[in-house]
Amino acid sequence: MALQPGTFGASASVGKAAGAERFLGRWSDYARSGHGDNGAIKDLAGADASHARHFQFSILRVFSPSAPAAQLDAAEAHFRKHCSHAVSVNLS
């Protein structure tokens, strides 16, 4: 579970990095492409090409690779609720 702070006019975002490669795979995609195939970040990157050079995130919680999807979804909802300034931009 990670928090991407709002930078350059973007809203903050809470999201999960599920899948076999977890954080490494998810954030490697962001570093490689500048948007990780995330629709809202693609829009931001299109409006400000420098955004990718300033990409940041904070790890909020780490789960076992075998954690059930329902547990990840519940944690994501929890952090979104308690990080009231954070909204999802996970359109990928």
Account of the 3D structure:
With 92 residues, this protein is mainly alpha-helical. The protein has one domain (2-82). 38% of the residues lie in helices and 9% in strands. The protein has helices at residues 22-33, 39-47, 69-82, and strands spanning 2-4, 13-15, 58-59. It has a 3-stranded antiparallel β-sheet, with helices on one face. The two termini are 16 Å apart. The model has no long low-confidence stretch (mean pLDDT 75).
Characteristic terms for this protein:
mainly alpha, 92 residues, 3 helices, three-stranded antiparallel sheet, globular
Brief sketch in words of this structure:
The protein has 92 residues and is mainly alpha-helical. The chain has helices at 22-33, 39-47, 69-82, and strands at 2-4, 13-15, 58-59. The mean pLDDT is 75.
